[in-house]
Amino acid sequence: MDESKPFTASKVASGIINPVTGRRIVKTWMIDELMPFAWQAYQSFGHLLNIECIAQKPIIDFFPAPQMRLAFIDRYEKDRQFLSLPENENDWLPFIQYDFGYGIVQPAYLTDIQLLLSSQRNYLLGKGQLRNEYFDASLCIDTGNTIAYKDITAGKIIFCDGAAGFNNPFFSNLPYGLNKGEMVLVEVPGLPAEQIIKKGYSLVPWKENTFWLGSTYLWEFDDDLPTRGFYQFAENWLRQTVKMPFSIVDHRASVRPATLERKPFVGVHPSNNKMGILNGMGTKGCSLAPFFANQLVNHLLFNEPIMADANVQRFKRILSR
Ligand SMILES: Cc1cc2nc3c(=O)[nH]c(=O)nc-3n(C[C@H](O)[C@H](O)[C@H](O)COP(=O)(O)OP(=O)(O)OC[C@H]3O[C@@H](n4cnc5c(N)ncnc54)[C@H](O)[C@@H]3O)c2cc1C
After folding, report:
1. Which of 17, 286, 292, 296 has the most ligand 1 atoms within 8 A of CB, as the residue to mutate?
2. Is the CB of 264 under 6 A from ligand 1?
3. C-beta of 257 in contact with ligand 1 (< 6 A)
4. For the chain, which ranges sit under pLDDT 70?
5. CB neighbourhood size of 192 (10 A)
6. If you take atom 41 of ligand 1, which residue's CA is the nearest one?
7. How much is the pTM?
């Protein structure tokens, strides 16, 4: 059951799977397991739905300041698994304004979440396996052995409700730390689209001549709407970074289902084994969701373990209140 809203986190995300993170460019949590799993998973979705929804795209990381250059080179000297340096640091000068050189992060992946979600939606609707409607938790009844909702009786209910999970009465005690992000879509004819360009913010190849630019990470916000402030920031960033004419064609915002300890919420409710959850994907849904969806399914079907760091059983005390 899914209410098709236009600006959910997945529909606003750029879809990057970046193997390194933060100012110190350390390896992303569990990336050695997540990357190959994600590649396989998106390839299988692609075969099933007859689409291509994952590609390799190196990240060209233009250093915004000299200390970022030093941090990259320092990390490169310690671990070269995902980092390399260009042969000619000036080769991007016809396109991009930069003063401190760049490094390359690869392999990195770009998933096409928009295409995947719309194709998957049509596939499930065609099979009569999806209802496009709002789920009202107050109408959900635990009958003891089953969960009843309107005309449905089920053995289990699994919530994958993203940021709305913050208000889900069965799991609302979980330590969410919701986080708002904004992006613009911008047309830049002539800008190469084989790489993801990063200079503090990311410029991600989208459709023909169009790029996704974002994003912000706001822990405090009043609503989930796009702001004038970010639009102006994006315009300035583009003026200072891109050397060709551009025009902003769209502007969107959404709320990420982030968690205070930056680990997802996966598994079965400690007090009610008919209720499950797959949420808390934060800034990394594209790589975490396929991996942990698979763990959850294997747990439900074959009683296989869910990784302790992600298992929602770690909140047994809070969820039993
Ligand atoms: C600007 C931005 C950029 C991002 N970039 C990246 C990126 O490059 N890489 C990456 O890995 N991640 C990125 N993310 C994070 C990523 O978007 C999230 O981790 C991921 O989309 C979360 O997916 P989800 O399915 O849990 O939640 P959602 O995408 O929010 O989906 C939840 C679904 O549940 C439905 N729903 C909720 N409540 C109900 C209800 N009561 N009844 C019916 N339906 C309901 C909603 O309508 C929605 O369809 C980004 C996020 C933002 C905002």
Report:
1. 286
2. no
3. yes
4. none
5. 13
6. 135
7. 0.96
